[in-house]
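Researcher: Following up on the earlier apo prediction. This time include the ligand. It's flavin-adenine dinucleotide, with the SMILES given after the sequence.
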Amino acid sequence: MNDEIRRSVAALCARFPGTYWQDLDARRAYPTDFVAALTQAGYLAALIPEIYGGAGLGLGAAAAILEEVHKSGGNGAACHAQLYTMGTLLRHGNTAQKDAYLPAIARGELRLQAFGVTEPDAGSDTSSIATRATRSGDVYIVNGRKLWTSRAGHSDLMLLLARTTPKERVAKRTDGLSVFLVDLRRAQGVTIAPVPTMINHATCEVVFEDVAVPAANLIGEEGKGFCHILDGMNAERILIAAECLGDARWFIAKASQYAKDRVVFGRPIGQNQGVQFPIARAFAATEAAALMVAQAAALFDANGACGPEANMAKLLASEASWAAADTCLQTHGGFGFATAFDVERKFRETRLYQVAPISTNLILAYLAEHVLGLPRSY
Ligand SMILES: Cc1cc2nc3c(=O)[nH]c(=O)nc-3n(C[C@H](O)[C@H](O)[C@H](O)COP(=O)(O)OP(=O)(O)OC[C@H]3O[C@@H](n4cnc5c(N)ncnc54)[C@H](O)[C@@H]3O)c2cc1C
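Model: Understood. Below is the ligand-bound prediction.
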């Protein structure tokens, strides 16, 4: 099944070559045509159950879709959130919410592409977010400032994490947070401003000023939002890891081909062990990471606890893609810096995954504390 998906995604991506992405990158423009093509083909509704009009596939299939996008030289960041935010909505949304939104998302009429968690003063430490949602009758009044809310300008809905009970009044600091589905088309008092970055990522600052969000749009239980978004976050880590695998495979293929073709001192550069060994090492790291991504996705799909595996998949795959990127750039010599080769663009793009959606250090701290039982370091 996944092989068939990979083949058809690869065929779709072939319509969007490197020149398409280079042009967008230069203009910092959104890949509207590419996202429309993926939507029309049904890939962004892959996880929506068939009764709501989706494909009813699991996270393993979503991982295959995003890996292929990246392996083709493209980038799924323009639309990948619709696949990972589903984890929260499908598992914790009520029937009325699913009926109201899922069929329209599946038809491609509604976009759920924004996930608002990070704030200027709260990135790694999610429990310190200051955005407040205060109940007033049948609405919550939201005030606060989110940063790095990617695709907010290209989405109809946003999954928003806000504090409903002050931190000093809860037993555990992750208690008292709640998750809402904000309809950006209707919400009054929301200001969205793009944040220029080193990559073409459509990321934004989003300010909420007395925004009334219907209480009916609270997902799951008030105060339990952190637990509810963990499903989305684990899905996000697994899917980002799949994108890293795609990047790594693109870099390895590109480096291998160039090393065969480029002749220096009368022989292909790939004949030198100094050139071929880093490529072979990156290949081995990628294949090892792929096993962890597959294991994490299988656990997620079986509703099993997958925190350690999702985190390890993201750690190993992002390190493999970064090693492959560095090796690919080095193999290309000066041409690695030329935009026409795509290497420098992909190099910049894959660097993000050492930092977002969770930084390498925080994954190591999680594994040390929660898996190995070492003392909490922060
Ligand atoms: C392009 C882009 C897109 C993004 N998209 C989204 C999005 O759509 N939605 C969203 O909510 N967020 C998004 N983010 C935010 C991203 O999740 C955060 O940048 C990330 O979680 C890190 O938070 P921070 O930037 O505040 O870094 P900080 O938390 O300030 O950390 C800075 C550095 O210090 C290190 N550090 C911090 N504490 C410790 C510790 N205790 N031990 C060891 N090291 C530590 C970190 O590892 C990191 O390297 C995006 C970010 C970027 C750059």
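Model: The pocket of flavin-adenine dinucleotide is lined by residues 115-118, 123-124, 148-150, 197, 201, 203, 352, 355-359, 361-362, 365, 377-378 (CB under 6 Å).
Researcher: Noted. I'll compare it with the apo version next.
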